[in-house]
């Protein structure tokens, strides 16, 4: 016989936060749709597809589109695990508080340290890539200086919008959501229906990318086409204390982000493949930036210009969402006394109710990285190489911590629950994550030792510096915030809501 909690009414937001040891400091002005928009614009299929379309085709050919299905399914399982966790712990910071409450202070410190740097590097990369769209929109010649100035413009514009408060952030995220849907689903459908130049069977044609070897090697090499696309949904949980009824709404928003993001990416990626006027040139690597040519030939100059407006809006919204998520993570980290300058970082503005100082940090470090990239353009690939792996490492630290607690007897007490399926979903999500990290950590084959191992080198530097600070400064000893209390909190929530255990 096993014991399962019976369904019960959930706590109101203030009471739930009180059980977790915190008080209300933010305005709960973010709706379900605004929360979904935040996660979706962070995930940003437009940014992901545009960034990796040519690379995916050159490495894996048209069948690389199937990575969208594979990774989408795997990350959906991860989002289900996260959904149960955030439903019990609807507090700011996402990865950090989840890892802390599921495992402990040191474990959470390392998970947050890796994730913070991965997010900050991602902010820099998205702003850098977005600068190219800005330059095209306004007819600015792309030079290192113009790229720097436009990158800084995107970073500062997002910062000012974030300073304006949660409502402004939510509105911009919703505008970005509309831009994303037009840019990926709208354009993708138009290309599929009216501008198709290839047969659908092309997605089963490797077009010789494997050379003399087996195709499976080339297919695995194109995994980044999917792995780069499906993160960002966790940002829905980073702003939990600004969402009304977060224990119910955030899990649904994360799941919807994955589902809509996956459909959007399929329409976009598939539309570009089928509308490509010279697909062999893209697959052979001769055409390294094919999307502008595809848009120009299918939409015309005016249509391509309109798309640029949509793309710039999506990039700005993506940077804004990334800054917002990073600042809430920094705030949550600092609120528990786990960072140098934690009192300054944990301040919330009295009028707009945003963690302004954490936002400043989330903008300043990407600015400094952009300056380094201005000095050496090759650094862009180097500093961003470990970002995706770092994010997957942080994700799987939470998934592993959740599974550990389940084996110790934890039954999630939030209103979103997988019930008896929870442990199976958790195990498969962990297995998927290990597989994804293995693919991401594979060294290159260029013969340049540094370039081939840059992913692991970057992650090693971040992990190494984090461990040094952890064991020298011992921030875990300076914090008295709760940790490793998943079972205790679950029991407290059930006691408050009147849930009981029944034998089955």
From TrEMBL:
UniProt entry tagged with the keyword Endoplasmic reticulum: no
Compartment(s) where it occurs, according to its Swiss-Prot or TrEMBL record: Membrane
Gene3D superfamilies linked to this entry: Amino acid/polyamine transporter I (1.20.1740.10)
Main location, first listed in the record: membrane
One Pfam family per UniProt: AA_permease_2
Keyword check for Transmembrane: yes
Assigned keywords, A-Z: Membrane, Transmembrane, Transmembrane helix, Transport
Membrane topology: Multi-pass membrane protein
Membrane-traversing stretches: 32-53, 65-86, 107-127, 133-160, 172-193, 213-233, 253-275, 306-333, 354-374, 380-403, 423-441, 453-472
The protein, known as: Amino acid permease
